[in-house]
Amino acid sequence: xxxxxxxxxxxxxxxxxxxxxxxxxxxxxxxxxxxxxxxxxxxxxxxxxxxxxxxxxxxxxxxxxxxxxxxxxxxxxxxxxxxxxxxxxxxxxxxxxxxxxxxxxxxxxxxxxxxxxxxxxxxxxxxxxxxxxxxxxxxxxxxxxxxxxxxxxxxxxxxxxxxxxxxxxxxxxxxxxxxxxxxxxxxxxxxxxxx
Length: 195
Hints:
The chain is of the alpha+beta class. Helix content is 34%, strand content 31%. Keywords: Amino-acid biosynthesis, Cytoplasm, Histidine biosynthesis, Lyase.
């Protein structure tokens, strides 16, 4: 089983994550940010990852530290669970229509972190979740997992739908990328021989 368990504590947050890439979509999450819990449930369900998350953050300030630090730990868990990345498909791409919104996610588990986030989000609150934290979450995830990650929004008006399309497309693309490809089971999918 490709699993990782990481706990991280700072003066701003305490984050604990257990991730199983070969799970069935079981999820038990509590971040103190209801909208983020919903997005993590979607991530686990559509990626078929088992995910346990507990975050105790300084929500009296805002959701920034909670969401960013969660992205850091999730990225570290993904990197740890993948190990040497032998046999993985490496690339993933998926486009999700969510009512009036359409968002595409493309990613490469290349070891070269980068984020392109061509998504327009109005700076509003969804519960106690600041929509601008969506980009920060994915940046932290990408840079701490060593992933090249691109999001492109074709269109969308409802911020909940646009962000949900981001998370669902990310989950499906990530599941594709971490899947073991029988053609490459005993090798690294790189002409360099390393990812």
